[in-house]
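Amino Acid Chain and Its Fold in Token Form
===========================================
Purpose: to set a sequence beside its fold so the mapping can be learned.
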Amino acid sequence: MGQSPPRPFGPLLRAHRHTAGLTLDELSAASGVTARAVGDMERGHSRGPQARTVQALADALRLDPAARDALLAAARAGRRRRTVPGGLCALPMGTPDFAGRTEELRVLREGSGGADGGVVLVVHGAPGLGKTALVAQAAREVSARHTGGCLFLDLRGLDPEPLTPYDAQARLLRALGVSDGDLPTGADDRAALYRATVDAADVLLVLDNAADASQVLPLLPTPGTGPVWVTSRRALTALPAARRLPLTPLPTETATHLLAEIIAGRTTAPPYGDALAFALAGEGPGGGLPPGEGTSRGDSPADLRSAVEPGAGVDLAFPVEPGAGADLASPAEPGAGADLASPAEPGVGADLSSPAEAASPGSPTRGGEPTRGGGPPRDVKPTPGAAPTRDVELSSGGEPAPTLAPGAVPASGADPFPGVPAAPRTQPAPGSAPAPAPAPGDDDDVDPGDPGERAALARIAELCGGLPLALRIAGNRLVTRPGWTASALADRLAAEDHRLTRLTAGDLAVRSAFRLSYEQLTDPARALLRRLALVTGADFTPVLGAVLTGSPLERVEELTDELVELGLLGHDAAGRASFHDLLRLYARRTLEAEETPKARRAAEATLRAWLLRTARTAGRRFEPGEDTRPADSDPLVDVGDRNAAQLWLREEHAHWLTALREAAAAGEHATVVDVAESMHWFSDRWPFWGHWHEVFALSRDAARALGDLTAEATHANYLSWAHFHCRHDPATGAGLALEAAALAERAGDTEQEAWAYTYAAHTAVTLARYEPAVTYARRAAALFEAEGSREGLPTALVTLARSLRSIGRYEEAVDTLDRLLALLADPATAPAPHIADYSTMNALCGKALALLELRRWDDARRAAERALEVDVRVGVPVLRGQALLCRARSLAGLGQRADALTAAREALEAARIAGHTTQRAEAEELIARWEPSTT
């Protein structure tokens, strides 16, 4: 029997507080967690606080070990359960200790309403200056001025593949309430819908991290209709009539204030025990070393006072000598300055991030007839109780690449991943007693009001070059190291500046802060940070960290919490972690410096193999009969049922798609074919994804490389479907279908040849080539019949009837469907029950459509009502909508206007659920025509 799920964190925390007899304020004072934060946790607004926050609460509540473990487990479960959907364009989480930027905030406020309400304002500057934090802060203050609020979209401008305007328009349209089914697939049509929708929405549009002006221009509303704020490292001088707001480093006074705000709630309780706290503070054996001794593991901080002194310049990223810098994004625009770079020294300077996920949605399937027609996967035959041949879902697979067993050491020996916390770097001498923990008010506690400590904070601010990113990391060092004084931290920063040469000032500040934070991590946390640089995509879960390190998932979750709390990783409301672009670069260069190429390749192969293996397992849940069979066990992720499998495949699509691309590039052809084959059934359930044409193009090419004609024909068929149904490109789909037919004939695979002609018939109807459509459909039916394919023949006959109906041969269409209905009703010729039900409903809808054209109203009504009876077992909204529309029209033909109006309203609801724009428009037109006039 499985364990029962943990009790929700909020009620559990409240119960412990009541048991302890504490008020919110008392628990806040005892734990160092603000009363507001505790209240949010108890009310369920924050269901998965970080581990150190929970530890502080548990200490204040004096919980015993069992209760403490239960509270930690509830917090972990809360983080896992959070499934806030992405792509809603919400503002990022706030910065409660935001400081400074008074003049910049004023400019943004004035640029969001009034006479300048339609202004385009570009906030630009070097990395680490807080561009995103600034616009997010201002947007929270002014979004209430707009009835539609604020839309925030990260354009991923530093990725190798930034978000395209086409995909950005889709995300913004979804956030504005446009369904997937209503998204045009044509670029011009989508752009027109986007412009009309955003013009009418009254929103503040924030476009973060733009690559260049060409990415932004298609996203701008009509001039004067609404404000747009853009952030970029570049000035984007090609944007017409845009205002520009350059950011420079914070003045020392403001930077010092920001540091004081960050450490204002600092606790004095050592989080790792007395001995370690004092070792880190420089007490005891190994502590208090002279400047520059005993602390080196590479590059470290330097004195950056020149960066904030008059005349030092505001562009901290500009190379200081020829060849000293490199552009990490794209060529600089005139006046835009160069991006953060560093000279060519080991471990410094690299591409940022990873291939961007593209999400160009397709369009909904059409009509009440099968949209895919694709038969069962090769070597997989439908079984009783399986899913219908058309509405199908995901699977993916691949031959596993070599993996690292949990806790295994790579051959190089460079990365131990013990799965348990590493011992502190500095331990008390054997037999020595640890020094007592500092008490509140002791000299070791930072008091921002103390003149000496205030001066030390000012020194730190100068050493960080006034960069908010570096300041925040330095502040987090003090918050999480209670034994440190601000003076000690400033000394550590200043003592190591001679080790860095030929680095630009901005890079120096950020790398110094990163290095100091990295040095204080345990070995497992360092390994996790390094290995996470191998993850592609915008964000990730701790599961991928567990795969990369071989450590237990719960341990990786704790380490991820540590990295988030230290500012080395970001996180969102859904509990997914992400890198700042500079931190990803730092982590990748540290990985290259500290691990061998062999170890890196092994980790990459392990991640790729796991992603493809999991995708295959998840996808196969949608194959006929597979939803009831036990899934392969995986301790890291549950894809044992269709809901869980679909959630994983959608949330992790950027990762497994990248893994598939990598497998194709590596020549892992059998793996690519296997994974794509497993996606055959799932792809019908997610036609709007926008990448099926890429998936099946990779698999078709892989099958060709393997010399497998049957597999090549099969995947050419899948590729035809992707172009026709997902990309609305029937011409390309037709060519691929006929290519597949020729391949299948050469291979002697009659069934795949029949599917190819079925696809060809579909595309021919759409292209108004009706006579060829009839020819292809008849050929497909004959081949299926010769092969004895019970699953394929119904699809071919429905397609034939549709083709006949398209050229006005309605009686022949009815006769064809009556023949099909007889085959489906005969146990000797019927396919599996669920396929028979689906095909029966499909045939009855097609028959009703033909009967309506013949004006045989009562026969059409009977066919539609029979279809609705079968719908109880089928449950496909598109078919239900078609049947209801046919019933409505037939009832109207019989003069039963009130019943017809009811059926039309039911059809409208079904069309909305299905996201089917054609059916919805038809239903709305019938309702408007038949509804009694109110005048």
In short: The first helix runs from residue 9 to 20.
